[in-house]
Design a protein that fits this description.
Length: about 300
């Protein structure tokens, strides 16, 4: 629940119990992870959660019954900026409501924000002062972020012919970046694939991968992750100037990347330390679960 003061009564902590989100994975419901590794762009996600409300406490604290409110769920993608919502769910006589929704994969990418609310559904005459009366008023809410871990979901991927640009025509890919730490990360970082590298273009495309295509994709993921770590290291002092950066900004992503991958070196290397630095970067990338993992 946001730390704002609302012009109506709201339930105390514990009156509404937000049970965990679950994700349908190969016909089996599993707890929703913080990051979905290997998610293929375009793949729908089916999610569900149950919310329980202590009806007597809710009435005492808000002046409302459970017939006055409903459970709503909406979701927003950080890169597509699309927001959708599931049909509202009513609470039963036991104070329980269940949401079971399918999120269309073509409208998802980057970081997924799931927002659940208990909201007023109608207006009844004669309500006391301080009791919510405007339909849609949010009595309480809960948000959860889920990172859709995929090369083409973490970064927009574009195919261009490098020979028509300043980039080397024999390079396979390039990561566009910025050092503007308050800029939106998912709007400024993107992977460019050289059209001349047909194998890599095929590997990045949607669908099942053979062993060679997966190896090419792992190599690309490792290379991009290594670049992010190096960039974060170069900007370490600037990143440390603020305890928190705006969510999903360049500073936020780089700071979290650096925090998750501690390096022994505290500054970009000189010529003597280049080899050791590269080894540390390689190990840190693998610790993040990027690239080819030891079997």
């Amino acid at each position: 629940m946001p730390a704002d003061v609302r012009p109506y009564l709201i339930p105390r902590p514990g009156t509404v119990v937000w049970e965990p989100w679950f994700l349908l994975d190969a016909d089996e419901w599993k707890p929703m992870p913080d990051a979905i590794d290997g998610w293929d762009p375009g793949t729908d996600l089916r999610v569900a959660r149950r919310v329980r409300v202590d009806a007597s406490r809710f009435l005492q604290e808000t002046g409302l019954t459970l017939t006055d409110v409903a459970l709503t769920v909406s979701w927003t993608s950080s890169t597509t900026d699309m927001t959708e919502a599931a049909p509202v769910a009513r609470f039963d006589s036991n104070g329980t409501a269940l949401i079971d929704a399918t999120l269309v994969g073509e409208r998802l990418s980057g970081i997924l924000l799931l927002r659940s609310t208990v909201s007023l559904t109608g207006v009844a005459p004669g309500r006391e002062v301080g009791v919510a009366s405007v339909p849609g008023s949010v009595l309480t809410e809960h948000s959860q972020r889920v990172v859709l871990e995929s090369m083409s979901s973490m970064f927009p991927v574009h195919e261009i012919d490098f020979s028509h640009t300043r980039l080397s025509s024999t390079a396979s890919w390039h990561l566009e970046t910025t050092t503007e730490l308050t800029a939106p990360f998912y709007g400024t970082f993107r992977v460019l694939i050289n059209k001349r590298d047909r194998e890599l273009r095929t590997a990045v495309a949607r669908g099942a991968k053979d062993k060679r295509q997966q190896a090419l994709l792992d190599e690309l993921q490792a290379g991009v992750a290594a670049l992010l770590l190096e960039l974060a290291l170069h900007l370490r002092e600037e990143l440390a100037e603020r305890e928190e950066w705006p969510p999903d900004s360049v500073g936020d992503v780089l700071a979290r990347t650096l925090a998750a991958s501690p390096l022994h070196l505290v500054a970009p290397p000189g010529a003597v330390e280049v080899a050791e630095f590269r080894t540390q970067i390689s190990g840190a990338v693998r610790n993040l679960g990027r690239g080819r993992i030891f079997q």
